[in-house]
Design a protein that fits this description.
Layout (H helix, E strand, L loop, with lengths): L15 H10 L2 H4 L16 E4 L5 E4 L6 E3 L2 H9 L6 E3 L23 H7 L3 E5 L4 H9 L4 E4 L4 H14 L3 H23 L5 E6 L13 H8 L2 E3 L13 H7 L3 E6 L6 H13 L7 H4 L3 E5 H5 L5 H12 L4
Parallel strand pairs: 3-4, 3-5, 5-6, 7-8, 7-9, 9-10
Antiparallel strand pairs: 1-2
């Protein structure tokens, strides 16, 4: 559980607007013991403390001015929070244009520890995708690290609140989160007024047929906008679908991840043509009737502030709002 009451997972059912107002208005008694200085100098008392999503007690002893991100999702959140200027290192998979000039420190699973330490960041932020020993090594070098797990939009917003507090930028974070909450609530209100329960089959590719099922942040995103994701019948959060499953389920729409690299588009189109001409696939009505929604791959690969954009993008096309 997060150390601050307004960051606690126990409060995930509370409307985010209430959380944002709390961030702005105070929680003074809850925070006053933890924030022991103005953050400009190191102190025996921490500037910020948290029990992160992996159960680790983390203390930051000065206001962070430099940050290394170990995950594209974290980089996305930092950009959304207006903290791009604090970024000193990101992974090779971080695709935000705003962070294009930031030094690359490898990938999530095996980042370049020597390079990260040489950057001397005040704080490292990452996810459970990075092995625990990486964080242990960095912390032994005196660099505090916070690990996140975001399994849905609410987790993303909770984690953005945590990051804002860690940076000493609660008010800025509250403003961003309030705007996100307004957009989310407007989207969900519009969804609730229309047809819900449409079946969808999400495919990351048409050969391997990888998908996202129950327990994944993608399934949370789809169910949040009233869609019935057929992959959530699988035991794994990241299952492979089969032709038989699509024939039985007969989804109303097929959602396909569209490669971002234009060099891959011709190969993708060739696979799609074969996909549509397959005698078995033709028996899937959504394919035969061309009810296919193409979604930019980064919307389906990277959770973060853009998750709300992805929800809007998919809802507009499935519900015919365009």
């Amino acid at each position: 559980m997060k150390k601050y009451p307004f960051l606690s997972r126990l409060y995930r059912r509370t409307p985010i607007a209430t959380t944002c107002a709390a961030l702005i208005l105070g929680f003074g008694s809850a925070c006053s013991d933890e924030v022991a200085n103005d953050g400009n100098i190191a102190s025996d008392k921490p500037f910020f403390s948290i029990v992160d999503d992996c159960g680790r007690q983390v203390s930051v002893y000065r206001k962070p001015e430099t940050i290394v991100s170990l995950a594209p999702s974290v980089s996305d959140m930092l950009v959304a929070l207006g903290a791009t200027d604090k970024l000193r290192g990101v992974t090779k998979w971080c695709d935000r244009d705003e962070a294009a000039a930031v030094e690359r420190i490898g990938d999530m699973m095996s980042p370049d520890l020597e390079r990260i330490i040489s950057l001397r960041p005040d704080l490292v932020l990452g996810t459970e995708m990075t092995p625990r020993h990486i964080y242990d090594t960095l912390e032994s070098a005196g660099i505090p690290c916070i690990m996140f797990k975001h399994q849905g939009l609410q987790d993303v917003m909770d984690d953005m609140a945590s990051i804002s507090a860690a940076m000493g930028e609660e008010e800025r974070g509250a403003t961003v989160l309030r705007d996100m909450a307004k957009r989310r609530d407007e989207l969900l209100a519009r969804v609730s007024q229309g047809t819900q329960g449409l079946k969808v089959a999400l495919l990351y590719d048409v050969e391997y047929m990888g998908s996202a099922g129950k327990g994944s942040w993608v399934d949370d995103m789809l169910s949040s906008i009233g869609l019935d994701n057929i992959a959530n019948r699988a035991a794994s959060p990241w299952p492979r679908l089969s032709k038989e499953a699509l024939l039985v389920e007969q989804p109303d729409y097929i959602i396909l991840a569209l490669p971002l690299d234009e060099a891959e588009h011709e190969s993708f189109r060739a696979k799609l043509r074969a996909f549509k001409e397959d005698s078995v696939w033709k028996q899937v009505h959504a394919i035969n009737e061309d009810r296919i929604v193409f979604v930019p791959a980064n919307y389906l690969n990277i959770p973060g502030a853009r998750t709300l954009d992805a929800m809007t993008f998919i809802a507009e096309r499935v519900y015919g709002w365009q």
